[in-house]
Amino acid sequence: MPDSSPIASRPDAARRSSPRRDLTQGPIGKTLFLFALPVLGGNALQNLNVTINAFWISHSLGVQAVTAISNANLIIQLLMGAAFGVSMAANIMIGQAFGAHDMRMVKRVVGTATGFFVLLPVALAVFGGIAAPHILDAMKTPLDARADAIAYLRVMFSAMPFIYFFYYMQMAQRGGGDSTTPFYFMILTVLLDSSLNPLLIRGIGPFPRLGIAGSATATLIAQGISLLVMLVFLYRRNSHLLLRADELRLLKPEFEILKALVVKGVPMGVQMIVLGVAAMMMISLVNRYGSMTTAAYGAASQVWSYIQMPAMALSAAVSSMAAQNVGAQRWDRVAQIAVKGVMIGFAITGTVVVAVYGLGDLVLGLFLPPHSAAIPIARHIDYVVLWAWTLFSITFTLFGIVRSTGAVWAPLGVLAVSMWVVRVPFALALIPRWGAEAIWWSFPLGTICSATLAALYYRFGGWRRARMIDPSHLHMDAAAQPAEAHSV
Q1: What residues make up the domain containing 416?
Q2: Which pLDDT score is estimated for 67?
Q3: Which are the contacts of 53, defined by CB distance < 8 A and separation ≥ 6?
Q4: Do 463 and 402 touch, CB atoms closer than 8 A?
Q5: How many domains does the chain have?
Q6: pLDDT given at position 470
Q7: Minimum mean pLDDT range among 91-95, 214-218, 270-274
Q8: Residues 171 and 299 in one domain
Q9: Does residue 236 form part of some domain?
Q10: Are residues 44 and 113 in the same domain?
Q11: pTM recorded for the entire structure
């Protein structure tokens, strides 16, 4: 049921008063490209922040500390996969409600999602603080790195309420059509985190010397400050994504909305787990060929992560843009977003791939010592694999389109098949005959499979009939007061 409030009845006026980008209007290609740029910038900043923090830990504390954070970060990545899924579900639901100019529904989703992202991370922080040693023991963390890993992980668990809520607010703003504001606050987070890392690790000036826990403490402080400043900013901007005093009743979860967040969010989070576990399996196969091959593979993988970044950003942008148009029932624009998204993703990723091929050893030299014997191996791996990442961009763009309606199981199935039915079995079957070459060629094969299946599902699948939530199951008196016209 659409909202009868002023913003619903006068959408043009609402759009003029709001700084958000209305993704149901305007030229599709230009709008999508401009919306995706800040998302790409945010992803790049996150990668840069991880690199900077790893630099300070390795150069300040040595190999044991690197081993400690490597073990602890596997757990953090798993937790962030869950946050990604539920946050993306909220992003899509908010986007659909904004596209329909149903501000009452926006508030209801925000109320339930806010309660979820406050209570769950707090419980997770308490549990993690207690269970950290047992989790690390179950992972067979080396004894010489165990104490550091426990110290680091306990602080990171305590930071989870800030990390989760900050991530959710970023996704919610993108659902409302604003990808620029989250980018600005990501800049603030990275500046604070990377600046505080050496100060708290080494105890420089008035700062305490905390060792490896200092790196995690820097993350906690940076996320906490950035979240607080963001919330103040959004309140001053009169954002629809925050609740006022007379709306706090909406924090009581609505079952159908909460169900949609979890049921639709979990498969999207599991996608990250499927990719992560497959990556762990592949590196275990690579390890059989010695440290030089592993180092070469590691360097090539670092290059791939940057090549994949535009496709990941475009996928997130496509989901937000398509969700608003699904909410507005603009299916003609949804189809055009798919075509433009595939074209933009293919062009950008293809350009980056060609550049990396052309630069060759100059790029690999960023991740390997000069004149290393691993460089020729990494160069060969790139020759075999790089071109296939252009198809990766097609897969993730189409995933962004289909999940914008609530069709979340098919993308998970496509990834599972391409990883665990094609890529890993192909490598295992042909290693006895081809050696490491079987591992390298398994990547293009898996990517071709996922792109083909994604295209077939987009063309013939039932994703257009999927819904994040059945409106008939909602109690429409849950937000009795009409919503006022706020910005995102």
Answers
A1: 265-482
A2: 66
A3: 193, 194, 197, 215, 218, 219
A4: yes
A5: 2
A6: 66
A7: 270-274
A8: no
A9: yes
A10: yes
A11: 0.83
Residue 304 structure tokens: 């791939």
User: Which of 43-47, 172-176, 300-304, 360-364 is the most confident on average?
Assistant: 172-176
The span from the CA of 346 to the CA of 20, in Å, is 27
Whole-number Å distance between alpha carbons of 71 and 32: 38
The token pair that represents 426 in the structure block: 């192909």
Closest CA to 26 of 315, 321, 394: 321
From the list 362, 382, 377, the residue with the least C-alpha distance to 290 is 377
Residue 340, domain member (yes or no): yes
Lowest-confidence pick of 2-16, 76-90, 211-225, 289-303 = 2-16
Residue 316 corresponds to which tokens in the numbers above? 């997130």
Instruction: From 230, 253, 276, give the residue that closes a domain.
Output: 253
How far is 67 from 62, CA to CA, in rounded Å? 9
Q: How far apart are the first and last CA of the chain?
A: 21
Residues 292 and 182 reside in one and the same domain: no
Whether the pLDDT of residue 261 is over 80: the answer is: yes
The full DSSP string for 330-374 is -HHHHHHHHHHHHHHHHHHHHHHHHHHHHHTHHHHTTTS-TT-TH
Query: 354 is written with which tokens?
Result: 């060609």
Distance CA 192, CA 110 (A): 28
Domain boundary among 191, 218, 253: 253
Gap between the Cα atoms of 350 and 316, Å rounded: 19
